[in-house]
Amino acid sequence: MQLKINIMPRPRNHPLFVLLLAGSLASACHASAPPVSPAPAVLPRTGIALYLPLEDNTVLAYNTSNDLNEKGFFAVQVARKPGSLVELRAGAKSQQLTLSANAVRHTSGGFLLKWPVRTGDTFPGEFGLVRVVATDRTAQVPAGSFSGCIETLEGGGAGALQQQSIKMFCPNVGLVSFENTASQGSDVSSQRAELRSYGPKVDVFAEAADLKR
Questions:
Q1: Cα(5)–Cα(19) distance, rounded to whole angstroms?
Q2: 74 and 67 in contact (C-beta within 8 Å)?
Q3: Would you say the C-alpha torsion 22, 26, 30, 36 has a positive or negative sign?
Q4: C-alpha closest to that of 189 among 5, 8, 1
Q5: pLDDT digit string, tens, across residues 7-19
Q6: Is the domain covering 48-212 a CATH 2.40.360 domain?
Q7: Whole-angstrom Cα distance, residue 144 to residue 139?
Q8: In the chain, where are the structural domains located?
Q9: Rounded Cα–Cα distance for residues 103 and 7 (Å)
């Protein structure tokens, strides 16, 4: 099932799903986030991989909120595929990205991020034109404080439906927050996600078995 970043102004409970990168969306849940281990040791990274590591079996959990003050969470697991494909999984839903040395592209079309990144640069995104707003932002999210982050703004639409997505990518972490807004006439809705934890996937059953030995 191909996931889109599109957010319909109604109903207000339109599901949120990040795609790591992506600011793509998945249903927010009102329960505890899946366990993740502490953040992995930072390895030297350069270029696009510095801001979107997308390492296999990494889990990123996000707190969510919307303009109705409804709160929840969702988690995304990164799965590396043969070749240049990466699959982002959130429950039963998934989305694929294509990696290259200087870009991360949605397989459905458009870029999530391109390298080199310079303030003012533009490139085609998933639903509109993406502009690099800044490359030196500091992000304060539940997972911590991150500096040297890239902020992008994507805007576009079809007919009366207009959409906007603000994303923040931080070094050695990836997508730490996004805010999506959709408007159709006087009807406006917004949804925000902030990173609450990140790290390697934990197999709680395997760990429990180890403890019993």
A1: 9
A2: no
A3: negative
A4: 8
A5: 333 333 333 333 4
A6: yes
A7: 8
A8: 48-212
A9: 24
